Amino acid sequence: MDPRIVANYRSPEGAARYEVLYRGRLHKRISDRVERRLIQRVFDRIGPQGRILDLPCGAGRLFPELARHSAWVVEADFSYPMLGRCRRNTEAVGYVNGSALALPFRDGSFDAVFSARLAHHLPDSLERDRYIHEVARVSRRWVVMTFFDEFSLKNVVRVLRRPFNRKRPKVAISTTGLHAVAAAAGLELLESHPLSLLFSGHRYALLRKVDARDP
Ligand SMILES: C[S@@+](CC[C@H](N)C(=O)[O-])C[C@H]1O[C@@H](n2cnc3c(N)ncnc32)[C@H](O)[C@@H]1O
User: Fold this and answer.
1) Those residues with Cβ within 8 angstroms of residue 108's Cβ, 6 or more apart along the chain or in another chain
2) Pocket of ligand 1 (CB under 6 A)
3) Fewest Cβ atoms nearer than 10 Å: which of 22, 61, 124, 192?
4) How far is Cα 192 from Cα 213, in angstroms, rounded to an integer?
5) Predicted confidence (pLDDT) per residue in 144-178, tens digit
6) Closest residue (by CA) to atom 4 of ligand 1?
7) What is the DSSP letter of 104?
8) Taking Cα atoms as reference points, which of 160, 187, 186, 203 lies closest to residue 35?
9) Strand 139-148 relative to strand 110-115: parallel, antiparallel, unpaired?
């Protein structure tokens, strides 16, 4: 991950900015609302859950959506300032400081791992693979995660405009790429839904542990 992004998330100022990000500008508020609806759709599909891990939890923005589906949610992040804010904003059963690349949980500790807006911060494919292996390892059955879609309109436009504006490329993965990495981690990709076809490149993917398939 870009060391500037790491430093920002780990700083009290960065955490304070992130806490209010989705309550500010209109397009952020709309995106937040659409995202919550999409999360409900995915969780309605898999039904109520026992233990859920919210990783990375940030300031706890999406905790209420998870709490609708489980009375036992653990919040985890590698930033102490984020966790501090999360603790004030949520009523989870636990708050854990840890890296998504080496999760401090035993195999199969959770029925579902929810992981929003982290994959697109991991440009190194080995780190990304490691992260996907870790969420797969600590989940008993489900992984719900976001990725930034290489073939989304948002990304294609960004790539085409790059020679003119020199904006940094986004860390994007194709659905086929995710499929392959997930399979190597013992997950099957069941569905993936765009946050918005026009305005966002993020997708929510629903994955299931291969060894948790119904007989
Ligand atoms: C874009 S925020 C997403 C937070 C939350 N999921 C949300 O959607 O509001 C990214 C979060 O990832 C955390 N983070 C970044 N790299 C991490 C890592 N390797 N392990 C754990 N947390 C990480 C940051 O501290 C930050 O809280």
Assistant:
1) 137, 138, 139, 140
2) 1, 9, 56-58, 61-62, 77-79, 82, 99-101, 116-118, 121
3) 124
4) 18
5) 999 999 999 988 888 888 888 878 778 899 999 99
6) 58
7) S
8) 203
9) parallel
Quick one: tokens of 63?
A: 């905790």
What are the structural domains of the chain? 3-212 (3.40.50.150)
Closest CA to 209 of 153, 137, 157, 160: 137
User: Which run of H or of E encompasses 181?
Assistant: helix 175-184
The structure tokens listed for 100 are: 């998504």
- Centre of ligand 1 from the C-alpha of residue 6, in Å: 9
**Å from CA of 79 to ligand 1 middle:** 8
| Ligand 1 mean position, distance from CA 129 (Å) | 16
- Give 1's Cβ-side CA count (13 Å radius): 21
Run of H or E residues at 37: helix 26-46
Q: What is the pTM of this model?
A: 0.95
The string of pLDDT tens digits covering residues 104-160 is 999 999 999 999 999 999 999 999 999 999 999 999 999 999 999 999 998 888 888
Own/partner contacts of 174-180, CB < 8 Å, gap of 24 or more, are 174/149, 174/150, 175/149, 175/151, 175/203, 175/205, 177/150, 178/147, 178/205
